[in-house]
Amino acid sequence: MRYRVAAIVPAAGSGKRLKARTKKPFVSLAGRPLITYALKALDSSKYIDEIYVAADPDSIKRLESVIYKYGIRKVTKIVAGGKTRAGSVKNCFDLVNPLCDIVLIHDGARPFPGDSDIMNSVLLAGRFGGCVTAIPMTDTVKLADKRLFIKKTIDRSSLWRAQTPQAFRYGMLKKALCEAKDISGVTDDASILENLGRRVKILKGSPRNIKITTIEDLKIAEVLI
Ligand code: CTP
Ligand code: MG
Predict the structure, then answer these.
(1) Which pLDDT value is given to residue 125?
(2) What is the residue-averaged pLDDT of the chain?
(3) Is 146 left (phi over 0), alpha (psi -120 to 50) or beta?
(4) Domain 5-224 is of which CATH architecture?
């Protein structure tokens, strides 16, 4: 079956930890605005039909011209973001075409989503209802108390670090967002479904799919390019 897929790209954060003069979506990565990488990857995926971007209201005009300049064609709407990431996703979701089968969410701050990750997220969401890209934990994980004394070592074999893309059947996400009482503290979209007891499948992702949070991440991204 060929799914109709809407992508949501939250890009309305304030980029506090990056400490750049330019707003995070427009910060230069190898000469191109950061946001163009995620948008280009989604735009050129044959699995994505339309894209909704959440942006800071002051950045909407600038984002429009970047989208035009870089020939990104599938952006259907640029939506004013919310106070939190989950709020920004919700603002976009409310405008997504209800004829879509699958909604795929990918952070604007992750420049290197793999094309196969986009494809497999869509397929697994279709099969299981929800899917999260994640990578296995490689460090030893410690549980500590507030004064930073270790309580114990946690078995890392069942621990995963969640990334995006995350994809969900439209109806399932709609129901979860309606039922959820408070999404403000939620840092990824799968937890909205998990909190309601829904099954979410993990897709093993790539360590290359980094999120740009600090200036060091930008340097790593330049090296990856
Ligand atoms: N995001 C959003 N709306 C918000 C907060 C975050 O759309 N109110 C988006 C960011 O733009 C980013 C993604 O969610 O693409 C992941 O957030 P993060 O990496 O934390 O980016 P920022 O919130 O911009 O950075 P910081 O937390 O350092 O301020
Ligand atoms: Mg943030």
Answers:
(1) 97
(2) 95
(3) alpha
(4) Alpha-Beta Complex (3.90)
